[in-house]
Amino acid sequence: MKDQSVKRSPVPKEAASYLIPFILVTSCFALWGFANDITNPMVKAFSKIFRMSVTDGALVQLAFYGGYFAMAFPAAIFIRKYSYKAGILMGLALYALGTFLFLPAKETGAYYPFLIAYFILTCGLSFLETSANPYILSMGDEKTATRRLNLAQSFNPMGSLLGMYVAMNYIQAKLHPMETAERAMLGDAEFEAVKNHDLGILITPYITIGVVILLMLLLITFTKMPGNAERPQRIDFLPTLKRIFARPKYREGVIAQFFYVGAQIMCWTFIIQYGTRIFMENGMGEKAAEVLSQKYNILAMILFCSSRFICTFLLRYLNPGKLLAILAVAAGGCTAGVILLQDIHGLYCLVGVSACMSLMFPTIYGIALEGLGDDAKFGAAGLIMAILGGSALPPLQALIIDRQIILGIPAVNISFILSLICFIVVAIYGYRSYTIFNRT
Fold first, then answer.
1. Considering its fold, how many domains does the chain have in total?
2. Helix residue ranges, H only, 315-416
3. I want to staple 263 with a disulfide (CB 3.0 to 4.6 A). Which of 77, 192, 292, 422 is the partner?
């Protein structure tokens, strides 16, 4: 006869087995958030260091998000053949390699080796996101999968905040105080000296985070991850793609994700240019204006982070598609203010956009992958490839910004029409998810 005095654990065995893996995988969300948001201010930094246009500086984003696009399906094939854990480890290894390549890039003194380092780094991030997002979705009941992913994604902006803080205090604040116009008048020898100083400042945080990534890689290597023992599966690449893209909810989700990521990166990258113009028109020096603009960028990320937890709570009571549509409409309204207002109030609107964006990525992700089963491994790759929006759209915005003035309005204001279009696309997807896809 069993001892009736033995109490059952209040935590289900399955849930308990996922706890440590959930914490470790969620930590990876913060790590790639750090990479994303230490990089956004580098568009302005590289433009200044190498005396380039905004358009040339935006090649940083092209290289950064191009890595996501290039490696998404190879990552999915790798994960399907091996496991989510193997995909995460490969991602961390490539992430670390990319950061360490900043050292030889600095030694060359050229711009393009940095773009190669960013590309390799984000090939690693592509592996990480293609592995971690669906792994989190698989850790429990599918009914709560979107809410669970939102919770994990809530730690992504914490890494982003740290990335912004490091960019502001350990890169931007320590770069040579000489302004862009003064750099343009330097002779070759003086320019090289200033450039080498600034590149030495720029690479230090990247090398440091590379060491952290290696430590995380070792920790996950020696941790038992549930589901890691799954058998290698047959890879029917084209039939699987045909099957998942035949689903309107998934197909339109990939499109919505492309435009959302484009809007997010544009809003966070060019807030520096937007704020700098406003503050310089009020008599502030360029360097001081850039640092103050970055503080507004950090405020935007704080709002983004806070809103993510609030929206995760609201998902207990509201349909994900409905909440997505509401927030996309609100983001569009704020973006209209960014375009039309040419003073500090426009900057306030740009900060406010971040509060509306917080829910979008994981919610689009969760809606699109719902019901895919094991096909989610390839479905995740398509949604990660959609991050190409962060590579394709910012250079278009930079081309507009380089025009300086359009129809008597600052070009940086006009450029946010691209973000407005993006939020309209997301609002349509949210509406269709709630009214049409939710019934099928």
1. 1
2. 320-340, 344-357, 360-369, 376-385, 389-401, 411-414
3. 422
Q: Is residue 4 part of a domain?
A: no
The reply to whether 46 falls in a domain is yes
* Owner of token pair 């507009």: 400
What's the CA gap between 141 and 156, in Å, rounded? 22
- Asked whether residue 3 is assigned to any structural domain, the reply reads no
What's the pLDDT at 284? 85
- For 54, the domain range is 15-439
Q: Cβ atoms within 10 A of the Cβ of 419, count? A: 28
What's the pTM? 0.74
| Per-residue model confidence (pLDDT) at position 237 | 65
Phi-psi region of 407 (alpha: psi -120 to 50; beta: other; left: phi over 0): left
Cα distances (Å, whole numbers) of residue 422 to 9, 40, 354: 48, 19, 14
The residues of the chain scoring below 50 in pLDDT are 1-13, 228-229
Element (DSSP H or E) covering residue 233: none
- Residue 13 is predicted with a pLDDT of 47
Q: Which amino acid is at 328?
A: A
Residue with tokens 């509401």: 326
> Looking at the domain assignment, is residue 187 inside a domain?
yes
User: 406: helix, coil or strand?
Assistant: strand
Residue 104 to residue 116: CA distance in whole angstroms: 11
Cβ neighbours of residue 383 under 8 Å, at least 6 residues apart?
Answer: 133, 253, 254, 257, 364, 365, 368, 369
User: Which CATH number covers residue 192?
Assistant: 1.20.1250.20
CA–CA gap between residue 440 and residue 438 (Å, rounded)? 6
Please say whether the beta carbons of 295 and 168 come within 8 A: yes
Q: Would you tell me how many other CB atoms lie within 10 Å of the CB of residue 34? A: 24
CB neighbour list of residue 346: distance below 8 Å, 6 or more residues apart: 274, 278, 337, 338, 339, 340, 413
